Amino acid sequence: MRVVEIGSEITAPYCTKLLVDLGADVYKVELAPGDPMRGWGTPLPNGVGHGGLFDYLNAGKHGATVELTSDTGLAAMHQLVAGADLLVENLAPDSQQRWDLGLDSESLARLNPRLTVVRISNFGQDGPARDREATPLTLQAASGWVNEREPGRPPVQAGARIPEYIAGSYAAMAALTALRIAAGGVDRPVEVDVSVFEALLSTLPYPMLLAERLMKMGLPGNAKGAPMLGIVRAADGWVGINCLTGQHWLDVCAMVGLPEFGEHQIAIMIGGPEREEFFDKSNPWLESMTVADLVELSQALRIPAAPVTDGQSILSCPQYAERGFFIDLRADPALGGYVRPGAPFRLSKTPVGAPRPAPSLGAAAAGWDDGAGVSRRDAAFSTPSDVVLPFAGLKVFDLSTFWAGAYLTCYLGAFGADVVKVESIQRPDGHRYSGSLLREGDDWYERGPLWQGTNLNKRDITLDLSSETGRELARRMAAEADVVVENFSPRVVEQFGLDYDSLVEINPDVIMVRMPGFGLEGPWRDYVGWALNIEQLSGMSSSTGYPDGPPCNLQGPADPIAGVHATVALLAALEHRARTGEGQLLEVAQIEVGAAVTAEPVIEYSLTGQVQAREGNRRRDYAQGVYPTAVDDEWVAVSVRDDSDWAALAEALGHPEILSDSRFGSSQARLDNHNAFDEVVAGWTRTRPPADIADELRLRGVPAERLLTADRMYDVEQLDARSFYQELEHPITGRHRFPGWPFRITPGPDRHHRTVSPTLGQHNIEVLSELGFSDREIAALREQKIIGERLLNS
Q1: Cα–Cα separations (whole angstroms), residue 545 to 468, 500, 551, 552, 707
Q2: SS3 of 520, please?
Q3: CA distance 398 to 595
Q4: What Gene3D superfamilies does its record include (predicted)?
């Protein structure tokens, strides 16, 4: 596959970096004076003039630098695009620059009518917010990502620029889906419109659905609850101990010697007086234990726990070390001389190649290599029967639980795959238990918003896999599947005889996606792994929070991030099978995905020997922050990128004389006097309503956003204009608006969801009948409780 990237910073380069990992031939076209990411961070020691993060994002790509005023450079770029399968760009929507480069839709149609185009932008290519000025901080604020993470302090962004990688991974997923559509004989370019704003909303644990349900029950829509225990201090560092169920909480209370608090989980979570008392009593014990001992003891009790690693300690983590995930290039200056994450997925038959150098600035386009081994789109991409449903005919056997694997299968189902999800009446999908505040009625396990949001577009059967009969039925279904997906700890499916080695004996060309938290091998392979563990172990948490405060959980996005990366790998594996008939095993260890999108801390540590401090809401190249408003508990995010933004802000403040204050006279001066800058801005914002502040600053071209909260996520004009939500009727809980996918493919589907989440065992008869079972045999299975339609002992 031939790819041209005309992108900068992280979103577009990370999209194409994933494609390089999968074997694509990528040309990175830089507009003079080059990608600003070249100057981000510590320069590599080999004198190439760029930093480690640029190298990580762009390793293995060809390079070409184009002057807008150079006819020769433009002609060379157009020649590349004319021979490409895919173009990925993150230029501003409908910008003059896009027209000057000849990258508008009409020009591309003339240049290469069989091209697939992925356009990544802050808010999308249309809608009232399309042209709104934004920065990574204000995008996080607009999408509900800036949250209170440390009690008593302003809400804080996610660190290490993680959200930008997320948008890039969605773009890669959309690109491979669109290429599949293009292979269906479309006679014009297939265009993909990726919204970073929507991508961030898509990784949230359905707070808009939860808020809607809470408000219908007469409860506050923005009820706050901290994960328990969360991140706590041990004798030698930070450790995450995470209670996902009531049993976890009881076990934690017993572990710390405080069983009397077992009945007070909810009160402690929401910050009642019991919380302070509990931590006053538990902290001395926790602080007497080492991180390693706390993790080992917790995991022995099946309590999800993990060390909180940073750019230094992650390199000595035994699970990463034994799996050889981080790639040490310090002995090879030609490859950058630093340490970087490996690929976020492992493919057994088509492994990711070794790193290659990133392109140098100023290179001239040499053209495509038409030698042996170059695959053109016609040979590489299978032809769908329906461009609206490009995965129609694909049979997916879904053994996943909770969110990560289910997110992958939800996506495949949305675009036409037949996804059959397996649960049991003895042990249903654990995601049904999420949202304990909503446990109303005997059918409470059908009502959870996280369950409903993650399991759209599927059929559901129940099989007791602890019985030989249930396992045999599962094997019969897996034998007819194209794809099998699971994300348990490794021992679970292995005990059931449903691991890849077992399945390939009955289905030689099956593609199996395994998504264990910690990986299939390594000393921690059987550890209990949840989203919070992934955040803590991968460096996400240590990068988030204030410099003088504790590491902070992001609280959720690790699961869908893993699901998106697994989907990218699967779509490539499907194309490999279409060409060769060969299936394979895909291993997507969630801790490795987490580390891949938190790359900078380990790269910088390897170059400097210093651990990067958490930055709170700040950024190293311009001043910004999150500020109070006249409304209690309401905040605004403001970024001042340059002197023009500062002049506009000063005018809004009503103090133009402040422009002569030497403390704020340049970007560097504002950074050097950031505390004073914050005082000036906060002195104005706290006198105004948040919406007024954001409107006034945006009118002047200054990036500013009111922090989005769960109770307002259904009231966003930009989302309505782009039909982000889709209303569906659930048979038990009624009509709800579910988030779609954060991109639009043209031509492609108008709707992103086909059916609501199934009820437990809803499709038992339908699926078993397709396997040849009679009504009498199905009734016997129900009598034996191999199958069922209601939770056992509910």
Answers
A1: 49, 40, 6, 5, 17
A2: coil
A3: 26
A4: Crotonobetainyl-coa:carnitine coa-transferase, domain 1, formyl-coa transferase, domain 3
pTM for this entry: 0.96
Whether 677 is in a domain gets the answer yes
Report DSSP state, residue 441. S
Looking at 263, 289, 307, the residue that finishes a domain is: 307
* Residues 249 and 393 grouped into a single domain: no
Alpha carbons within 13 angstroms on the beta-carbon side of residue 75 total: 3
For the chain, how many structural domains are there in total? 3
DSSP 436: G
Give the pLDDT of residue 439.
65
- Tell me the pLDDT tens digit for each residue of 63-120: 999 887 888 889 999 999 999 999 999 999 988 999 999 999 999 999 999 999 999 9
- What is the rounded CA–CA span in Å between residue 656 and residue 674? 19
Residue 119 is assigned to a structural domain of this protein: no
Three-state SS annotation for 155-214: CECCCCCHHHHHHHHHHHHHHHHHHHHHCCCCCCCEEEEEEHHHHHHHCCCCHHHHHHHH
Please tell me whether residues 400 and 525 are part of one structural domain. yes
| Count of CB atoms situated within 10 Å of the CB of 559 | 29
What CA–CA distance (Å, rounded) separates 507 from 397?
A: 12
What is the rounded CA–CA span in Å between residue 213 and residue 756? 17
Residue 166 lies in a domain: no
Supply the range of the domain harboring residue 676. 620-709
- Give SS3 for 87: strand
Q: What are phi and psi of 64, to 5 degrees?
A: -155, 135
> In the chain, what's the furthest Cα-to-Cα distance?
87
